[in-house]
Design brief:
This protein is mainly β. The chain is 10% helix and 49% strand. It has 1 helix and 4 strands; from the N terminus they run ββββα. A hairpin with a 7-residue loop joins β2 and β3. The termini are far apart.
């Protein structure tokens, strides 16, 4: 559920190998640091998203979105 003081901003587009990811930060009020991040795996036949508490590293992206 979205709070009126909540805002989402795209903060990164990352490439890991042939995969591409968009990272959005979710902010409450005037905070400068996101409360959490949403990672979207884009450019594939289907888009999948995942919420994480810390900004993802390349290793984290490989682990969360394994390729065959």
């Amino acid at each position: 559920m979205k709070n009126n003081n909540e805002s989402v901003r795209k903060i990164a587009i990352l490439a890991v190998g042939k995969d591409h990811f968009e990272v959005d930060g979710c902010y409450l009020g005037d905070e400068r640091k996101p409360r959490w991040y949403t990672i979207s795996h884009v450019g594939s036949n289907s888009t999948s998203s995942m919420r994480v508490d810390n900004f993802p590293t390349h290793d984290t992206l490989k682990r969360l979105f394994p390729t065959n």
